[in-house]
Amino acid sequence: MFYSIELRKYFQFESVGISSGENFMFLFLEDVLNLVWNKILEEVSKKISPQYYERFIDTLKLETLNSEKCTIIAPSATIKTHVERKYQSIIENAILEACGDKIPVEILIETKAASPLQSFLEKSFDQKDFQFNPDYTFETFIVGDCNRLAYTAAKECVRKPAEINPLYLFGSVGVGKTHLLHAIGSELIKKDPWKTVCYVDISSFMNEFRFALQSRELIESFKIKYQSYNCLLVDDIQLLSTNAEKTQDEFFALFNFLFERKRQIVIASDRPSSELTIHERLKSRFVTGVQADIQYPNKEIRKGIVTSHSKIMDLGLSEDILDFLADQIEEDTRLLLGALNDIYLYKKSYSLLFLNLDKVKEIVKNRLYRKKNVEFSHDRIIESVAKEFNLNAAEIMGKSRKKELIIPRHICFYLLHNVFNVNKSQVGRLFQTQHTTVIHGLRKTEELLSNNKEIRFLVERISSKYKLQ
């Protein structure tokens, strides 16, 4: 291939070892032009680290260089996007140094047939494909004692990225973990539009990684993608299990890469990191920052959530309706928002301006916590479990962590919640323990029931004794 370049005007010949002549157009071979390209690369290498030079710049090829523009070929959309964001101005300045004039740079993707896997990954790498939920902001997050630490830490991640690193948010479904992840991401981008921020649930991460294992090229693209982010927001980390050995290794390597470079990492889970079924070396990384427990909101916070969203939706709900919704839906705040959506659609369907409390009760009845038709005593359930284990109820209700008390206590959690529909928050208050402890106890009891016939028969005996037929 030949290239047309007006030499004296656009190149400082001495810098590339070419003697100058009269002003005229030269045709010369590719190896001569490569001298110019090598000079440009030499200038670029002075501005960025060897690691990034090798990963990004060294993969580029010079296509054309003339008085109008410099065309560079990138091997993939991933490389192209990253170079444009991070290094294009550096390349243009290097051309100015090497050639004596400012020439605009255009970066193109190498034209070759992409496999379905490559297309999948390339598409997933474009941040434009992911938009943070505009409803999930710090302004719309209702703050109370149940979530104040998590909220404050999340704000700090935006104010001083990597000062708290990692931030580990944990709590049950619907308490606001995903809301805070989106708020962090959108605020970081608002603060600096050039920031690259990734929100990913761990299931999507695992699926991408499995796809990438198909070839060395895809693995490299996968690594480039995740290592290029300034902030990584990971949801539902509890779904990463010890069975996924390679995925854990990859996530561990990614975590270390970002952490060592002071990139912000925020992780969300439904349980404390100590209860995750992952390798200890990964758990140990999660405890180096701040762990913030988000509890279920109390009635005051729930009412704040309902009030805020009902105003946004222009529902015009009265105080008695707001109190009713906040009082009846105690656990997952998504149920609260779902109830508001039901009300909104009902009003819209019948062109109503206002609703009374009775009508609202009818609209949301399927979302409400429904009690059994007869009452039972919590104490009687606990006493029955205690009797089965030759203990007294006070021991089970106490704070002792003795092994012989843990299983009976967890069985009480299970009976109250799964059999008699007492919500987790009420169980926690009854035993004066944290919500996450109740969740852990329920999970452990479910494991016991699947593996231990005696425990299963015990639970069935007590259930049949008190449960309504």
UniProtKB/TrEMBL annotation:
GO terms under biological process: DNA replication initiation; regulation of DNA replication
InterPro entries: AAA+_ATPase, Chromosome_initiator_DnaA, Chromosome_initiator_DnaA-like, DnaA_C, DnaA_dom, DnaA_N_dom, DnaA_N_sf, P-loop_NTPase
UniProt region (Domain III, AAA+ region), positions on chain: 131-347
One Pfam family of this chain: DnaA_N
Chromosomal replication initiator DnaA C-terminal domain mapped to chain residues: 377-445
Domain (AAA+ ATPase) ranges: 163-293
Cellular localisation: Cytoplasm
Sorted UniProt keywords: ATP-binding, Cytoplasm, DNA replication, DNA-binding, Lipid-binding, Nucleotide-binding
UniProt xrefs under Gene3D superfamilies: 1.10.1750.10, 1.10.8.60, 3.30.300.180, P-loop containing nucleotide triphosphate hydrolases
Molecular function GO terms recorded: ATP binding; DNA replication origin binding; lipid binding
Residues that coordinate or bind ATP: 174, 176-178
Keyword Disulfide bond: no
Gene Ontology cellular component list: cytoplasm; plasma membrane
Keyword Acetylation among record annotations: no
CDD domains: AAA, Bac_DnaA_C
Chain positions covered by the region annotation Domain IV, binds dsDNA: 348-469
Region (Domain I, interacts with DnaA modulators): 1-111
Record's function text: Plays an essential role in the initiation and regulation of chromosomal replication. ATP-DnaA binds to the origin of replication (oriC) to initiate formation of the DNA replication initiation complex once per cell cycle. Binds the DnaA box (a 9 base pair repeat at the origin) and separates the double-stranded (ds)DNA. Forms a right-handed helical filament on oriC DNA; dsDNA binds to the exterior of the filament while single-stranded (ss)DNA is stabiized in the filament's interior.
Domain notes: Domain I is involved in oligomerization and binding regulators, domain II is flexibile and of varying length in different bacteria, domain III forms the AAA+ region, while domain IV binds dsDNA.
Family statement: Belongs to the DnaA family.
NCBIfam families named among the record's database cross-references: DnaA
Subunit annotation: Oligomerizes as a right-handed, spiral filament on DNA at oriC.
Protein's recorded name: Chromosomal replication initiator protein DnaA
Source organism of this protein record: Leptospira weilii str. 2006001855
